[in-house]
Each structure stands twice: as C-alpha cells, then as structure tokens.
Amino acid sequence: MLKLLWSYLKFWWRSKNQHGVHSPFVFKLVTDCFYDKSNYNDYSKLRQYRKELLSNKDSIEVTDLGVGSHMMKTKKRVIAHMAKNAGSTLSRTKLLYRFVQYFKMESILELGTSLGIATHAMGLAQPEASITSLEGCPNITIFASDNLKANGIQNATVINTEFSQGLNKLSQETFDLMYIDGNHQKEATLEYFETLLEKTHNDSIMIFDDIYWSKGMTEAWNTIVAHPQVTVSIDTFFWGIVFFRREQVKEHFIIRL
C-alpha cells in the first residue's frame, strides 16, 4: 500500500491536465472525453448494475489464474465483497463508457470479465458493438454472462478460457479496443501485448488496467510504451492506454483525472 501511495505521489508530480497537452489528438481526447462532465442517461444503469452486485450476498467458488486479489484470499467469495474490492469504481466505469462512445468502437476484446462491470459499461456505450470477453474462472463466467443478459446486454459474449489459449483461438482478425484487466503479472501482460499486436489496425487502442499494481506491472507498462509500434501512450495511473496511429509522432503523456 505504501509503495502504491508513493507511486501515485510521483505520478501526480509529473502529470498534466489538458492545458499541458500540445497534441491536438490527445488534447481533444482529454477535453471531450476524459473531462466530459455530461450526465449521460446510461449512468443510472451503471449505478444500478453496481448496486445490485453490492447487495448480492450469494457466494461463488473462484478460480484465480493470475495473481488473484490483494484483498480476498479465500476461494469462496461473496459477490458483494468482490464487487466492492475487485470491481471497477463507478468513476472508472463512467470513463470507460465515455471512452468507448467517444471512439465509436465496433469490435471490443476484454481480458478479465470478472463480474461484468466494465463489460456492462462498454455494452451500454455501443449497443451495436461486438464484445468478446475472456474469463478464466468457470463460475464467474456463468454468473457474469447471465447477469449481463438480465441487464439488457445482448452484444457481449463471455468465454471461459485461460487467456493465452483463448487469444490463440480468436478468429476475428482485428479489434478496435482491447481492454486488458486480468492476470496482472509482467510476463503474462507482455505475452498478451505481443499476441494482440497481430490483432491491431491503425486506429486500434489497448487499455491496460492497474499498471501500478506491482513493480512487475509497471515494468511491463514501460516496455509496452517503448515498443516501436506504439506511437501515443497515456498514463492515467490506473490505466495505461496505447495507440498505434502511424500518422502520430511517438509521444508519451501523463494525464491526471
């Protein structure tokens, strides 16, 4: 916890808002998406989905294929506790909603469905998009898939698979957005990145969640930023976002939200 706090203090010291951004592409993204204060109608659905999970006292047997949770070490977990400790925050969920809507994503790949909080937001943001979400735990896969459908999300397919195996079986050639929120280990994250490079086009975007989760995750993020195919990269502390736009000069941004 102290290491995370120290990392955040260093991040805050180096970070900028939109006024310190000189790239028109990134300035518009920060101004019109990151700092968008609009109260979208779908925000009430995001809150309701989260509220239902936080009030769900049912237990579920969890199989952790990555590093697992920092907060929960038992295999049998209460859904409400999972939503509180491991799910995306409401502010982050709103940002993801705006992000998907801003870029008008048509094809989305998610690694790490968990309870479907992020999946739900992406599905609401672009109802016509095709969302493929990979989840390593069989019981969570069933729960999330059923819960998403019960909440009106018909454009998401949740697949139970180990990520590396699942990625190798994907038939779709490219994705607009690849949202990586699972495993949280350096070697695995870099493996996913290298594999997913084959699924990118010029306007593809990758989001890596929890880039300061551990020293290894931060090292993985720094390696990804330095990759020659990555042009624009944005560090928001909790997310690392990379773009592959060949028309952009390679540049790294640290943006406070």
**For this structure, what is the CATH class?**
Alpha Beta
Mean pLDDT: 92
Query: SSE order in H/E notation?
Result: HHHEEHHEHEHEHEHEHEEE
The total count of helices amounts to 10
Extended strand count: 10
Per CATH, the architecture is 3-Layer(aba) Sandwich
Tell me the name of the CATH homologous superfamily: Vaccinia Virus protein VP39
At the fold tier of CATH, the topology name is: Rossmann fold
Q: Percent of residues in helical segments? A: 40-55%
Shape call: globular
Estimated structural class: alpha/beta
User: What is the beta-strand fraction?
Assistant: 15-25%
Q: Show unreliable segments.
A: 68-73
Rg on CA atoms, Å: 17 Å
Spatial sequence of strands, sheet with the most strands = 5-4-3-6-7-9-8-10
Counted up, domains total 1
Largest sheet, if any?
8 strands, mixed
From the N-terminal CA to the C-terminal CA, the straight-line distance is 20 Å
Concise overview:
This protein has 10 helices and 10 strands.
Walk me through this protein's architecture:
The chain is an alpha/beta fold. The protein has one domain (2-43, 87-254): Vaccinia Virus protein VP39 (Rossmann fold). 42% of the residues lie in helices and 17% in strands. It has ten helices and ten strands. It has helices at residues 2-14, 24-34, 43-54, 79-85, 90-103, 117-125, 138-150, 163-169, 186-196, 215-226; strands spanning 59-61, 76-78, 107-111, 130-135, 156-160, 177-180, 205-209, 232-235, 239-243, 251-254. The strands form two sheets. It has an eight-stranded mixed sheet, sandwiched between helices. Helix 7 links the parallel strand 4 (130-135) and strand 5. It is globular. The two termini are 20 Å apart. 38% of the residues are buried. The model is unreliable at 68-73 (pLDDT under 50).
